[in-house]
Amino acid sequence: MDLQSLCKVILVSALISLVCHPCSVTAGDIVHDDDSAPKKPGCENDFVLVKVQTWVNGIEDAEFVGVGARFGTAIVSKEKNANQRRLVLSDPRDCCSHPKNKLDNDVIMVDRGHCKFTTKANNAQAANASALLIINNQKELYKMVCDPDETDLDIHIPTVMLPQDAGVSLEKMLTSNSSVSVQLYSPKRPLVDIAEVFLWLMAVGTILCASYWSAWSAREAAIEHDKLLKDALDEIPDTRHVGSGGLLNINTRSAVLFVVFASCFLIMLYKLMAYWFVELLVVLFCIGGVEGLQTCLVALLSRWFKRIAESYVKIPLFGAVSYLTLAVSPFCIAFAVVWAVYRNVSFAWIGQDILGIALIITVLQIVHVPNLKVGTVLLSCAFLYDIFWVFVSKKLFHESVMIVVARGDKSGQDGIPMLLKIPRMFDPWGGYSIIGFGDILLPGLLVAFSLRYDWLANKSLRAGYFVWAMIAYGLGLLVTYVALNLMDGHGQPALLYIVPFTLGTFLTLGRKRGDLRILWTSGEPERPCPHILLEHQTIEELNDENISIVEFEENKLYFVVANISNENESYIALLKREHMFEL
Fold first, then answer.
1. How many CB atoms lie within 10 A of CB 241?
2. Is 488 a catalytic residue?
3. Are 546 and 571 in contact (CB under 8 A)?
4. What is the three-state SS of 369-435?
5. Which end of the chain is least crowded, N or C, by CB within 10 Å?
6. What is the pLDDT of residues 421-461, one digit of tens each?
7. Predicted model pTM
């Protein structure tokens, strides 16, 4: 592997590692069980997120999110069943002794520390509180559990922990001589959200468009290849690279190196996940998005503006650039810049998805899997990569590295931009359904290969592999979302489900149809050569006038070229050199 090829492999691996993230939702886990905090009688609630809606002087105000305790009464799930109760500040603030406040089914707010959580809850319950809000001394939430030797667990009021910043806001409300009331409830996430349907359509549609573009380009290159061979009269052109300019064919070594490079980049993301690093990723994403959007627009518009698409001008550092590319580039750059500036607004996901889809389609157009062998190695490595960094990494890093990077938990932002995402429209918790680019790119390489093979082999949709590969990918992604909802929103490695469906279908069909050897090795159907290799008796009929001798070596076998006209049809014949002396 030369240096240039190695650099390409590193760049592609870096791209895929940046974009290979699990299907997930970013609103947080609504229900979470923790084996490190075992249940026992009186302390057996699941950890749930709780909404704390506030009213100030009867006017609806801010809403905060906390986490319910392992002990106490379960939080109601429906807002209509949750009662509004007056909020009071505990005296003493830590509630480690009986409060001096006179409570009448009020919600009492206390500070964390100086005694056990259950002690605070028992004191609040004894003071006739209806619920207990514990303010953490940090910005994060903390799971409130029971000590193994605790016995005083007869607690019948709900207990919720709020982050430090929420406590500061609530205290300002209370100290401003305002009447503050709160409502506590934990709504359940719907089984299926329409966002997942649209995300599924986006992923499938992206692979569909990219596959047809890739197959059309491959067919055009094959036609041009045959035409050059058939029409050449005076010399034999080097056609091995016709139509392959700018393409990157992955080999088995590159596929294996993907795991190493992708893992290194993922670790780098995990360790360096900070505000400045996310900003750097935004810049890189914009550069890739501009290139992808520009490539797609030029390809679409070149059909209507063929003249300016085929007119070029030389630009320093960039070389020959078409006038059409110059025309669309300002729009693409402006689009990416506007998205980067306003990426935190509610509708910025639209721009992110447009740039992301254009980038994925462009990569699938440039990067090719040459045969099923390489595709199998690549997807198998990606399969193990996804499982390791989503599940196994918890044992080494005490958290899922892939999910932490995808959500941007350590960056203070919404995560890296290399994701397709759609807001969860009917989810009371909001958030986004997301899918990593890698969950589209990697299977998309195999699906695009299937359509290129079908077109070059002149197979119908039913007799080909593309339709079945697309169905398998769609089913695999669908199963991913089913698993995602069954796991209460926990991030899932999509390739865990997509790879067996897609690759398994391809291998099974290839074996059943007898095409597995060709798919596995060359990856291209055996096409008839446009030249005619003449037999010995035909050669004897030739004369010196219609023979142009051009010797060249092909696999240690020498040929000469004969230009033959027969019934108004001209073609080139390749003649073994051993026959030349008989003419």
1. 10
2. no
3. no
4. CCCHHHHHHHHHHHHHHHHHHHHHHHHHHCCCHHHHHHHCCCCCCCCCCCEEEEECCCCCCCCEEEE
5. N
6. 999 888 888 888 888 888 999 999 999 999 999 998 888 88
7. 0.78
Q: How far apart are CA 298 and CA 317, in angstroms?
A: 20
The tokens describing 342, both together, are: 């306003």
Per-residue confidence band for 304, with pLDDT thresholds at 50, 70 and 90? confident
pLDDT digits (tens, 9 = 90+) for 211-234: 999 999 888 887 877 776 665 444
Sequence-distant (6+) residues with CB within 8 A of 462 are none
Q: What is the CA radius of gyration of the chain?
A: 32
Q: How far is CA 308 from the centre of its chain?
A: 35
Catalytic residue among 106, 414, 427, 439: 439
> Who's near 201: CB < 8 A, 6+ residues apart?
none
Q: What is the CA angle 78-81-83, rounded to 5?
A: 120
Clarify whether 515 is annotated catalytic: no
Q: Which of 29, 353, 386, 414 is catalytic?
A: 386
What are 520's two structure tokens?
A: 């596995």
Could you tell me if residue 423 is left (phi over 0), alpha (psi between -120 and 50 degrees) or otherwise beta?
beta
* Alpha-carbon gap, residue 172 to 178, rounded angstroms: 9
Q: Find the Cα–Cα–Cα–Cα dihedral 530, 536, 542, 546, rounded to 10°.
A: 30
